[in-house]
Amino acid sequence: QVQLVExxxxxxxxxxxxxxxxxxxxxxxxxxxxxxYRQGPGKQRELVAIIxxxxxxxxxxxxxxxxxxxxxxxxxxxYLQMNSLKPEDTAVYYCYAxxxxxxxxxxxxxxxxxx
Length: 115
Fold this sequence. Notes:
Elements: E1 4-7, E2 10-12, E3 18-24, E4 33-39, E5 46-52, E6 57-59, E7 67-72, E8 77-82, E9 91-98, E10 103-105, E11 109-113
Parallel strand pairs: 2-11
Antiparallel strand pairs: 1-3, 3-8, 4-5, 4-9, 5-6, 7-8, 9-10, 9-11
């Protein structure tokens, strides 16, 4: 059973930074891509950032220039560095991993941006 475990969420003031981690129970080279999603209060889940197994990345417009997704294959870990956080970034952040035939989700980690 493949598991994804997120960590790094918490309470931060506007303008602050957090780094989320997603550790997989298998080699992340097995996945075609790994993504971060988020779901804010009363909102639908949205795709935030993507990183392919070749390292190419893409972001939703609202986080471009503020968030950076990266991967460390040796640690089976994907990161989401979040800078210049805004109250509207408040959400549960989920890690996603996909192969050609299957998808996997983490349990989520809460990020709250508030003064």
